[in-house]
Amino acid sequence: MNRKLFSVLLSIILISVVKCGYIHLQMFSDSDGLCNNLFMGSYVLEGACVDNIIIECSPDQKTIIAKKYESNECLGTPLGKEVLVTGGCVNVTSKFECTQEIDLPQGVNTIITVRHNSTEEQCPDYKQGLVELTYVLTNQCTPNISNPNKYAYIQTCDETSYTETDYKSKNCQPSTQTDSISFPLPVNSCTNTTDSLSSYQFCYIPNF
Q1: 132 within 8 A of 115, measured Cβ to Cβ
Q2: Count of CB atoms within 10 A of residue 193's CB?
Q3: What pLDDT digit, counting tens, does each position of 38-65 carry?
Q4: Do 159 and 6 touch, CB atoms closer than 8 A?
Q5: 131, pLDDT greater than 60
Q6: How far apart are alpha carbons 98 and 84 in whole angstroms?
Q7: How far apart are CA 10 and CA 7, in angstroms?
Q8: Residue 171: is its pLDDT beyond 50?
Q9: HEC profile for 173-193?
Q10: CB 3.0–4.6 Å: which of 129, 164, 174, 184 could bond 116 by disulfide?
Q11: What is the rounded CA–CA span in Å between residue 123 and residue 204?
């Protein structure tokens, strides 16, 4: 799939979702509390059941309420809820906001994973029923979440694959490289059930 077609597909996605409310989560790799070094983020459809959780914005959009359920369909009484403040950094490394539009970073190639509730008959028309869009920025040193002070990795992508290179250092020193693995793109994981989400993964290449 060429770059022009990717751009067209992404434009259709944006047109399809701008009418809906989304929760935007941003994750940052810096630990100084300033939230400057963005490395990944996601847009989740407000009120949709995703991984047993429903996320909604408060009427004034100053807080986000996340309710966790036992069932995959988010039925019954919630097991619990968490209230998050929008705007500033949360727990040093994350930021939440309520938005009506999906606005992707434009300065670098981005690995996109779209999760949707289209059935097999509709796939690969993943634009319909979009409930979550996750993006991962490439070409930057990203700390390993499980051990950020010791390990890190760099991801790159193009129209046919993405590559992850691992390092045994937090700053991705070339001499500490341990592994490099490539994965084919795009990936279309389509299900024919209504109780699990399908997904579509590809490399978004901005028009520089």
Answers
A1: yes
A2: 10
A3: 999 999 999 999 989 999 999 999 999 9
A4: yes
A5: yes
A6: 11
A7: 5
A8: yes
A9: CHHHEEEEEEEECCEEECCCC
A10: 129
A11: 19
Structure tokens of 165? Answer: 């290179």
Q: Is the pLDDT of residue 126 over 70?
A: no
The more confident residue out of 102 and 161 is 161
Rounded to an integer, what distance in angstroms lies between the CA atom of residue 84 and that of residue 123? 34
Provide the pairing of β-strand 38-45 with 22-28. antiparallel
Q: What is the DSSP string of the chain?
A: --HHHHHHHHHHHHHHHTTS-EEEEEEE--SSSS---EEEEEEEETT-EETTEEEEE-TTSSEEEEEE-SSTT--SS-SEEEEEESSS-BTTTEEEEEESS-----SS-EEEEEEE---TTTTT-TTTTEEEEEEEE-SSEEE-TT-TTT-EEEEEE-SSEEEEEEESSTT--GGGEEEEEEEES-EEE--S-SSS-EEEEEEE----
Across 180-184, average pLDDT? 96
- Under 8 Å between Cβ of 48 and 107: no
The token pair that represents 45 in the structure block: 């459809």
Per-residue confidence band for 20, with pLDDT thresholds at 50, 70 and 90: low
How large is the C-alpha radius of gyration of the chain? 18
Give 29's Cβ-side CA count (13 Å radius). Answer: 21
